[in-house]
Batch of 4 targets.
Target 1
Amino acid sequence: MTSADTPEPATLDPRLPSPLQEIGDDRFERHGVRLLLKRDDLIHPELIGNKWRKLVPNIEVAAGRALVTFGGAYSNHLRATAAAGRLLGLSTVGVVRGQELADRPLNPSLARCVADGMRLHFVDRTTYRRKAEPETLDAVLRAAGAEDAYVVPEGGSNAAAVRGCRVLGEELRGLADVVALACGTGGTLAGLAAGLAPEQRALGVAVLKGGFLTAGIRALQERAFDARLGSWSVDDRFHFGGYARTTPALDAFAEDFEDRHGLPVERLYVAKLLYGLATLADADAFPRGTTVAAVVTGRPFPER
């Protein structure tokens, strides 16, 4: 399929701007904090939340070329890229961390990628860690038969994605004092902060251990905008052991939130965000009268 034949992402009827929903929750209200949910999970049933905002700008730059991207065995980013390929008629290749996985039955996440037409290429963990090095990347692309593909980085965070996420901040201008979201690679926060008004601030809740996000977000903004923009910070205290880790306490919190508000809570990102915000509110980290908007960047993928 040529780029001229490729459907435009707009033909997928995204719900933009995404809805803003006020939530009555006594854990915030008793501290004088108003909680809003920015429902990016409702943008599109398969290209959910920040996946839409980060992938679509890259798809437009790719101009019909095959997409190759990277992720672990349960990567939501791989699933979203595969879904985008199916919906838009694009070839996709997923480079998966862990050569040992190639000889095992596919888990449901990777099986969904294959069902959506993604071709998987497994690499050992040492190679995966070095994937950003030009020589290693070239070797991986050759081995995957994807030399001419457009490369989307792990998590989808690059300059194009950051500029796409700036629109999220623009949609929230003047509507909240603090805009918070869960962060993996930091690309969504980098763009969000650039789009907010000067009096607003963005708060990232890290879902990985390591404390490396601040430097990464600064670098992403430099690449996208040639400057650090907006007021933003990262809180590293609510990762619950790291990426893809949960605890009984986090699960109990998420189940309670679902019961209270009828909202499916994705565990690896959104639950950690909401737990962090409730903890901060309980510690009076937000002055009374503060409006906090929590960006719901995802929800459990449909298993079709």
Target 2
Amino acid sequence: MSLALASQLREGTKKAHTMAENTGFVSCFLKGVVDKSTYRKLLADLYFVYRAMEEEIGRLALDGHPVVSRISYPELNRRESLEQDLTFYFGADWLKSLEPTSSAKAYVERIRQVAKNSPELLVGHHYTRYIGDLSGGQILKNIAQKAMNLPEQDGLRFYEFDSIDDEKGFKKQYSATLDSLPINQTTADLIVEEANQAFKWNMEIFKELEGNLIAAIGKVLFGFLTRRKRKGSTEKT
């Protein structure tokens, strides 16, 4: 009998999903307030997260792990796309100069820990990140492109899933895969719990980046007010 894990994950993470969307960073992003410096720091953090996840899932899939091997969809992988984006923003030697934020480091440590001790819980992280990216990718891409005045793809390849022609069909297939995983209800509950924790790790990254975004907005506002003040001082009375 199917445990309907896909439905359990969807329903069980609704609250966490809403909380993540309501963080200051994401709220600003969705409203088109995107600072390039902060945005590229987000991509750097995501690179370290996806590198860890894809290394661990790839290793476990090669070892034939009965659960993890089934969610190892190469067409979802984001590491290469992020490498292209980071090269665009930071230049060819970007990896030498970038370090993850403390929140991203903690997220990566959790992924490594889960992969070592309870690999099946990686399903929660996989679902939270990849399906979220696939579902909202084009919307976020359009917002970022307009806000930062970027070309069609440069700096935005993270949102492109070139190997997936039918997003709706793929998500249907992914849900069927989740429902067919060889797990019991106890493990399903733990996966849902881990997915909620994955949202928490993502929110911690967003919150750490909020300080940079607020500072950038403040700088722009200060510059605007200064220019306005100077302009006013030159007007004849």
Target 3
Amino acid sequence: MSTALTTGADALTVAAWRDYDPEACALPGMHLGDIELTGPLDEEGDRLWEAGARLVRLREPVDLAALGAPGADERAVRLLSLVRDLTARAILVEWKLRLDPAAPDDTWRALSHLQPPQSLHGPADAAGALRGWREGHYLCKCLWRQGPGFVQIRDRRWGELRRFTADEPEYQRVIETLAYGAPAGEVPAAVLADFIEERLVLQVGGLAWWMPYRVNRWIQEAMTI
């Protein structure tokens, strides 16, 4: 799937500020206004950072409870990708999340490496899930890196460190294909099954989406992470 966004109804619009502190955001010149994201989505996090954005507010919720309608799967994946990429940049994101009430109760935990949303709907104990998300979140909770001849994922979403290392080239190709969502049939079934089993890929309607991020700002030395 292409990462290019079209204009009009398919574009994403966000509000942005130069600081994350509410008092600072109220000062003249701190509000960057509404920004329409119409370029390749894999470049928008860098674009917002370079524009000075340190707080970004999504204008619409990420809705995983109303998939299947025309364009709904793609829209949800685009929004999730933006939240993921901004999290990797350590840009504060204000967003809202709706999960399917029929989804497993720990679905939120698979997304808990992303910055916590302002509101969460869907889980039976949504308030408790959101509280756990906020209390347990930190940067670099689930990330991947490309080494010389291998791909490694380091995942702490489940309370302990889980490492997944693969040196087969097709694993990197699948990550690249699913980075901004793609139909599951576009990637080798065996590789996709491995990633789904490790809960590194989220199925969003008819799309498969790669959840870990490549961190842009380390909280401490990379060897420690």
Target 4
Amino acid sequence: MPTASARDVLAARITAQQLDRESGTVADTAVLDLGVQDTGPDGGLWALAIRGVVPEPGELTTVWTLRGAPHLYRRADLPAVATATAPFSEADAAKRIFDAARPLKAADVPVLTALDTIAGRMREIVTAPMVKGETSRRLSDALMTDGGPEPYNRFCVPCDAVHVWEQPFRLAALRAGLELQPGTSPPVLQPVPGFAPAETVPGRLDVVRAYLHLLGPATPQHVAGYLDAPVTEVTAHWPEDAVEVTVEGQRRWLLAEDAGRLGAAAPPVTRLLGPFDLFLQGRDRETIADPARRKELWPVLGRPGAVLAGGAIAGVWRPRKAGSSLTVAVEPWQPFSPAVRAAVQEQAERLAAFRGVRLKAVDVA
């Protein structure tokens, strides 16, 4: 059985996720197969920018999918994405909506039926761009007429109002054929013309395969944690061509076609990863950062970005915007070499240009 170190794994992921390239296209960008989380100002489009991609208008779509988070996908892939990211089963659907499953179970309403019911109402309500709050209000009212405030709605104490449960709302939106208008806050939902989920899913969009390709080697538990799915469901959908590898004494798997990447030297690149970049989304956090650094990299609130240098996470960074200028505050985990300092400066300038502001300074602690 092949063996690999954590550094080998990270080096392979840099290549798999194309963080070592300077230019590319939407069509050939691998992370779009799994979806690029679009959270915060340095979200999905920045993740693509550091992989050398500047999408053309209309090439991408933003939808709520995995974990109810907004993700970017190729617009042409959307029908297959809807099928690929849907729950595998009733048990999977119940796990993905968390506490919202309890009132449905008490009312003897299957979760998949509930998602279809919510999606049907959303489809009727959102016939033109509509802000999320208005959509939620109308949806709550519509579902109240379908049998009282439960099992679809809950009373929100801070708002002193009745709302649809959040996760079913988000997971039903794509079932309803709704996407998010890019860059809107609060989110604006709008119909996708002619939308219908695909009957089949190409292998590259299979979420288990895509995770193993982009974040492998991994275990079924890692994939399940990323999807919010039961481990048994992930195991049932495990690729037949997954091969076993030992990483730091732990059994893991990756796709056979990717096995040749393990053991290759890490590409000599420096990148300022956004807080929710896919490179930081692996559920094997022990591989990505030492225990002493994990709370710093993944705090409960206010995640920083991460400095990728030397084939590993070498520190964290935070943006400080004042008017039309930007300061990038960097906290190295080890002293930076002159070459890495220069590369961080260059990446900070790239970030400022991406944001359309002037770089004031790079403060390295």
